[in-house]
Amino acid sequence: MVPLLLGITLISFVVIRLAPGEPVEAMTAMSPKITAETRQRLREFYGLDKPLHVQYATWLKQVATLDFGRSFAPDNRPVTDKIKERIPVTISLNLIALILEFGLAIPIGIFAATHRDTLYDKGITIFVFLGFAVPTFWLALLLMYFFGVKLGWLPISGLHSLGSETLSPMAWFVDLAKHLILPVSVATFGSLAGLSRYMRSNMLEVIRQDYITTARAKGLTERAVVYRHALRNALLPVITFLGFSLPGLIGGSVIFETIFAIPGMGQLFYQGVMGRDYPLVMGILVIGAFLTLVGNLLADLGYALADPRIRHGRG
Amino acid sequence: MTARLFCCLAALVTLVSCSGGAPPAELPRRGAGSPAYGDALVVGTIGEPSNLIPLLASDSASHDVAGNVFNGLVKYDKNLELVGDLAESWQVSPDGLTITFRLRKGVKWHDGTEFTSRDVLYTYRVTIDPKTPTAYAEDFKQVKSAEAPDRYTFRVTYGKPFAPALASWGAGILPAHLLEGKDITKSPLSRHPVGTGPYRFKEWIAGQKVVLEAFPDYFEGRPYIDRFVYRIIPDTSTMYLELKAGGLDMMGLTPVQYARQTDTPEFLARFNKFRYPASAYTYLGYNLRNPLFADRRVRQAIACAINKDEIVHGVLLGLGQVAHGPFKPGTWPYNPSVRDFGYDPARAKVLLAEAGWHAIGSDGILTKDGKPFSFTIFTNQGNDQRLKTAQIIQRRLAKVGIEVKIRVLEWASLLTNFIDKRNFDALIMGWTIPQDPDIFDVWHSSKTGPKELNFIGFKNAEVDRLIEEGRSTFDQEKRRRCYWRIQEILAQEQPYTFLFVPDALPVVSARFRGIEPAPAGITHNIIRWYVPKEEQVH
After folding, report:
1. Which of A289, B59, B151, B287 lies 20 to 30 angstroms, CA to CA, from A97?
2. B94 interfaces chain A, CB cutoff of 8 Å
3. Does the beta-carbon distance from B208 to A160 stay under 8 Å?
4. What SS3 state is found at B146?
5. What is the pLDDT of residues B148-181, one digit of tens each?
6. Under DSSP, is residue A270 helix (H, G, I), strand (E, B) or coil?
7. Contact: B7, A85; criterion CB under 8 Å
8. Mind listing the pLDDT tens digit for each residue in B58-100?
9. If you measure CA to CA, which chain A residue comes closest to B2?
10. How far from each other are the two terminal CA atoms of chain A, in whole angstroms?
11. Which of A24, A27, A33 has the highest number of chain B CBs within 10 A, making it the mutation to test binding with B?
């Protein structure tokens, strides 16, 4: 895992620097009050005047002590601080959306599989693909207009109302929950398609197996066949899906966060890339890479735990 | 606040730092009510501020917030005249080399310490310190010596007379007692500023909002509005919905919003709309190193072929005006008698023929020595107005037999791969118009070097001489003559075809009273805005 992580950082480090422009550029470009000397001074300040491999070595040494360095943005704050203040929002939002996604998509998939090719199945397929196909920003704006401006039921953007500091803890929580309804619904609606279709095909696959025929032949009720025998096996691949979702927990969609004015990781990363804020971009990439690797590992472990065939060697 | 003085290409219409000339389009419809303390003004900001020490920030969001927290020695008043801010008065020596500022007495920092000349001296020193990563050192490097003879006097001496010098002292003065001897780049003040301004810092919730509160001891009196809240809303459509839902009190509208979506009685009852020219212009710039544009007649022909009125109507829905030069209409450097080429496609064809472009290829495109007249207009991604402008120009030029291709590029790659390498045919871009008319950096022939801003490579001896003359005297009448002549030359030479000056279109909740539209916009007297007691909501 460590060599893999190193490889990822090396490639990211080089690729982000291949993008035209430099961090200094964002501050100085098109400003008449900048001379070559000032620009050089800024480059030295950020260590950009050194050769690339030296920069990489310096960065790696820092990261080895879990220090991601200071951001190249004008605030010059430690990258860790910038990530820390955004991670709770991102993780909670993604976690809620993930729970909803799994909680809705799995039953939907099962239902579609057991009602295969009926009107229900087709209706569900249309519904989930609609969610997949509709542009998030468009749907979000429509809902914001309808629920926020027309009906005035829900807040439009952000996480808290003005003056929410003075509310009682209960009222504060309700205020937060109201702010989350729209973003979470839009996020969930958009992600239902993948998992539910996956679940449906797994289920259909399993139902075709011999042991299901055996179970039916034994005279078990359809209920027992589907939920005890088929479902357990059909759920196995979902573990992999869950493992892949782990890095997604700290990621975020730029469009989505921008529309709802949610200060999440997606925006932070986007700003980092646009401003060529190398330490910040690298910091987020390293965390993302690490979580991806951990997610894969957990998926493997979970698989082994759930499936005796894998646990005992030969499948 | 210094950001207002500098050119930058970013957003054309920034929210708080808007400035302009004409009287308001709309007047408050409600009664005036009586001034009262209280309530909060909630404004939206697209970007989150990066650093609230103005010296270290180059984004407009940071400067908008810092502008309410810090003061400079001088400022521009509502009529865009320089007046004292932290300086009570100043004196320029007869030779134009020394400026002596007499500082206001009894001004308090937000922590209660008194403001003195030591703070000014510190701000100057930290600005020119090579270790400070600032974009604003240049003007201050012209200073030969700076001294603070006593607590309330500050004196600077320049190597040669430098007219923009005075305005450069509008930069925010920093508190020496909190910063001296410390590393400014790691100072907590960047997220918790302490200034002398009308509002003091209260809190900053990352990615969500920055809150300022009225400073009761402000030297011009306590502001009526108790709190100033900047909500960070990165999307303009969301911002507009928030405005309509009552979550924001003020924002800058787009032309479509202003002209088509806000003329309902319901909207007009709740908000006051304002309209005045923004301090910015959009232009089509030609790379003069390119043989295609070396001939002045070709540039003049393109100017004749473009219908600027059509662009103002199509792109800005009429909410702007045609530009003829680099200065803001209605200000003293602007020469109202200069008109460049009006829309005249027939004349364009004549001029092109004179320049040798008379053969017409099978595809209807002009050719010369067998080569078709075809070029690419570059512009940056994310600016819809510029893209539309390019498309309108493309169509008009096709009619006189010139083929135009359009390339839209991400900002950094446009800059690095094309502008810096001088590897472009023509550009559609914009400049903000600084208050001081010195245009040395964009038009002087010495500024054509790598990464410098005369990237089109304009070299004109007379313009050079006039620019130098204009910046080396404090006599406004002499300066005016220089800038008026420059405009005549630019209109003839057409190194840029100046396209339009858009209008700033701010809208403010109708509960705010005391707004006085002036050439400087509406925010110049923001500390005198108030909400009558019975209408306060926060």
Report:
1. A289
2. no
3. yes
4. strand
5. 999 999 999 999 888 888 999 999 999 999 999 8
6. helix
7. no
8. 788 899 999 999 999 999 999 888 999 999 999 999 888 999 9
9. A33
10. 25
11. A33
Secondary structure E strands in B288-444 = 320-322, 359-360, 366-368, 371-372, 374-380, 403-409, 426-432
Q: Is the dihedral of CA B351, B355, B356, B361 positive or negative?
A: negative
| Closest residue, chain A, to B207 (C-alpha) | A263
What is the structure's pLDDT at A33? 65
Cα distance from B406 to chain A (closest Cα, Å)? 20
Amino acid at A109: G
Residue A215 pLDDT greater than 90, yes or no: no
If you measure CA to CA, which chain A residue comes closest to B245? Answer: A149
Comparing C-alpha atoms, which of B10, B74, B82 is closest to residue B331? B82
Q: Which of A30, A82, A157 is the closest to B238 by Cβ?
A: A157
Measure the CA angle with vertex B88, ends B327 and B334; round to 5°: 10
**Alpha carbons B257 and B254: distance in angstroms, whole number:** 5
Show residues of chain A in contact with B412, CB under 8 Å: 19-21, 25-26, 274, 276
Distances (CA, A) of B139 to A266, B122, B169, B172: 38, 16, 9, 14
Give pairs for B208-215: CB < 8 Å, separation 24+: B208/A158, B208/A159, B208/A160, B208/A261, B208/A263, B208/B232, B209/A158, B209/A162, B210/B49, B210/B65, B212/B65, B212/B68, B212/B69, B214/B37, B215/B110
**Facing B133 at nearest CB: one of A42, A86, A267:** A42
Reference B409, options A254, A21, A281; nearest CA is A21
Give yes or no for B139 touching A (CB within 8 A): yes
Cβ–Cβ of A149/B241 closer than 8 Å? yes
- Look up the pTM and report it: 0.81
Name the residue among B492, B287, B497, B294 with its Cα closest to residue B389. B497
Residues 6+ apart with CB under 8 A from A63: A9, A286
pLDDT (tens digit per residue) in B186-232: 899 999 999 999 999 999 988 899 999 999 999 999 999 999 999 99
